[in-house]
Amino acid sequence: xxxxxxxxxxxxxxxxxxxxxxxxxxxxxxxxxxxxxxxxxxxxxxxxxxxxxxxxxxxxxxxxxxxxxxxxxxxxxxxxxxxxxxxxxxxxxxxxxxxxxxxxxxxxxxxxxxxxxxxxxxxxxxxxxxxxxxxxxxxxxxxxxxxxxxxxxxxxxxxxxxxxxxxxxxxxxxxxxxxxxxxxxxxxxxxxxxxxxxxxxxxxxxxxxxxxxxxxxxxxxxxxxxxxxxxxxxxxxxxxxxxxxxxxxxxxxxxxxxxxxxxxxxxxxxxxxxxxxxxxxxxxxxxxxxxxxxxxxxxxxxxxxxxxxxxxxxxxxxxxxxxxxxxxxxxxxxxxxxxxxxxxxxxxxxxxxxxxxxxxxxxxxxxxxxxxxxxxxxxxxxxxxxxxxxxxxxxxxxxxxxxxxxxxxxxxxxxxxxxxxxxxxxxxxxxxxxxxxxxxxxxxxxxxxxxxxxxxxxxxxxxxxxxxxxxxxxxxxxxxxxxxxxxxxxxxxxxxxxxxxxxxxxxx
Length: 508
What we know:
The structure is a single chain. It contains 17 helices and 22 strands. By secondary structure, the protein is α/β, with parallel strands linked by helices. It folds into 3 domains: 6-81 and 166-242, Rossmann fold (3-Layer(aba) Sandwich), CATH 3.40.50; 250-338 and 425-508, P-loop containing nucleotide triphosphate hydrolases (Rossmann fold, 3-Layer(aba) Sandwich); 354-423, no CATH class. The strands form 5 sheets. A 6-stranded mixed beta sheet has the order 6-9-10-3-11-12, sandwiched between helices. Helix 4 crosses helix 5 and helix 14 (409-422) packs parallel to helix 15 (439-454).
């Protein structure tokens, strides 16, 4: 009887002086869900790349179905029955779900003159049989890009099962799902486990790990720090091993005291641009001393709304900041009027990743005093301002001239906040503030947002983490297909928030 469906033995992998994996050994058996957790940069992703055949280990070996194997690439891993569903889905959005199902492994039938044709009837029968086997319904003729996020994820899983996957690796699978969809996914994963499939579940959500997994392994600084059966451990014990024995900083729920309206939006709409989601007749307000959360399944217009408010996306309708009409103004003038913006993608948009920590910290202030005298930069003032901003938010770094890309994800995000808050904006637009940030970094960023609110600032917060929205927000708006479909108190039942998030027919 097979005891190891997929295993790693003494895996070591380095990138120059960086030791990403230092003798990691773990395994998952048939019909088992094994969770792998750890801080950002702990070595989880490197290990998964080795198990997928994307990377070759410097030493150690991979075991599949009790056999030692050597992968020359991902195709070899797939041939051995190992498949992975990534955080960013691999579907072609303009193809149908059925076309995506068989892409690269199409069933064929022979036509006239020995011409090979794709057997679409057979393909659909295979898709329906697999979907029924695991208890879900799929409209196979729907365009992938128009399908709900959880259906896209299910099709990714079915596609791998069709290719004979016996080991399924799920990388942060719940990050883009509403609560009800998380429950559906977990039900699906449990059914797949019952069929004997082995599952590696990568997550930073300890509650989900405790709910779903049979076993958990903590990776810290490239090594195994802890491993146990879920029945023999607790969430607190897992968290303590993630942060090296220290008690993780935790959030204290504290609501704000709203004052006068700072942001007032009336009838805002925006057209589709490059497959983005249109916005329809949006009206709401955000007050001083208030954090308003914006919930929604990913891709329903949340990011487009933030871009429209910051001036990065053209829109119609009225946008007022403290009674001043900003409609039609670009990003630079809105910033000057008092809007700060934290992008959801700090590496591509929020930071100049190859520039120095100092340059990123003072960006946007480099044309005004004391940094600029109108002709050139005052180096001493530039350094002083950067140091003050970094110190205010306790950013950990080596030297000001170091690349900002050399910082951890949490410290990169603190640099963004240090820059945006330093100019004392009236309104802070914040998208995905803790994406890729570890436990203590999350608590620190939450503290930054609360401090800004408690000092009288107004915050509009977009997050795909419903827990984050509920712990930070004073009230929560729900967005579906480019519209605001409801506003609830932050203490509202998660199921009610989730119900609104998956409303059908909310858009045009």
